[in-house]
Amino acid sequence: MSSDKLIFLDVDGVLNSTKFAVKMLEEDNVRIYAEDLLDPHALRLLKRLVDETGALLVLSSSWRKIPESRRNLERQLEQYGMWIADSTPCKGGERGDEITAWFNMIPAAQKCRYVILDDDSDMTVHMKHLVQTSFDTGLTREHVDKAIKILIG
Q: Which of 79, 98, 105, 128 is found 20 to 30 A from 25 (Cα to Cα)?
């Protein structure tokens, strides 16, 4: 790991949201979930978080399991100067268990500060690292501010 900070990243409910989906459907008749579109505002907020903390992105979203969705995600992140450093393993069960499995595979990372951006709360022992977003609104400035405090202290 080339950073001592990590962001475990979910996509649905973080980088897209009901609010964004309705806006796109009303304005352009575009169905974001069918086209894997992400909210540019949420991407800018994530970029701010990455830039201010130097954290690496670890994909914990179900998007890691769907090759086309993952490629679309990577392409959109690259447009903002971001990339996925790694992904959690697909173990099934709770997302927190998959994060634990990732830390077990990379023991050096256990010393890293980390935050989890997710709209779900199945983080098991990692709850104090969770910045829980809402599927309705996605990532907000308040979430980013909280994540920065967790990563920087």
A: 79
What CATH number does residue 10 fall under? 3.40.50.1000
Alpha carbon separation from 127 to 44, 97, 117, 144 (Å, rounded): 25, 12, 11, 17
Amino acid at position 19, single letter: K
**What CA–CA distance (Å, rounded) separates 38 from 21?**
9
3-class secondary structure for the chain? CCCCEEEEECCECCCECHHHHHHHHHHHCCCHHHHCCCCHHHHHHHHHHHHHHCCEEEECCHHHHCHHHHHHHHHHHHCCCCCEEEECCCCCCCHHHHHHHHHHHCHHHHHCEEEEEECCCCCHHHHHHEEECECCCECCHHHHHHHHHHHHC
**pTM beyond 0.90:** yes
**Domain hosting residue 112, numbered range:** 5-152
What is the average pLDDT value for the chain, to the nearest integer? Answer: 93
pLDDT digits (tens, 9 = 90+) for 25-47: 888 777 666 667 899 999 999 99
Total domain count, the chain: 1
